Amino acid sequence: MLIRDMTPQECRDVLSRSGFGRLACARDNQPYVVPIYFAYEPDHLYGFTTVGRKTEWMRANPKVCVEVDEVTNHFQWMSLVITGRYQELPNTLELRSERQHALMLLEKRVLWWQTAFATQQNPTRHQNADPVFYSIHIDSMTGHRAVPDVIESTLELPTQPWAGKG
User: Fold this and answer.
1) Which of 22, 25, 101, 119 is the most core-located residue (most Cβ within 10 A)?
2) By CB neighbour count within 10 A (0-12 exposed, 13-18 middle, 19+ buried), where does 134 fall?
3) pTM higher than the cut 0.85
């Protein structure tokens, strides 16, 4: 397999079509990673959640990281790492326009709200389900792409290598 750096345009293309990734935040030297749905536009990721650990931690430390990947097979994949800053978009006069913009972008995605409200279905959680819209201001973005080398391109890989023959 050959691994190469992705161009900034390739990274933007992946973000434009993806909409799903893993958000990492940290508090008191403890990392925390969760799946998120997002909408992308240059310099920003927009997301939606409800108040919980992720929100509390990002409020305390707005430095975040998002990982997004596309995997075709073992030899062909792309992985992006985005670093940025969390900004909550409350329903205030000052941020109403950006909040509406975030909602408009998110509504173009299927199930954009699902992870936020799925956590509310847990009967052991007693918290407020008020919607929280947020933006991640992108500070940096890098990506790597793997492609099969000459020999690997000729191999036929099973689609489920863990499924043994019985």
Assistant:
1) 25
2) buried
3) no
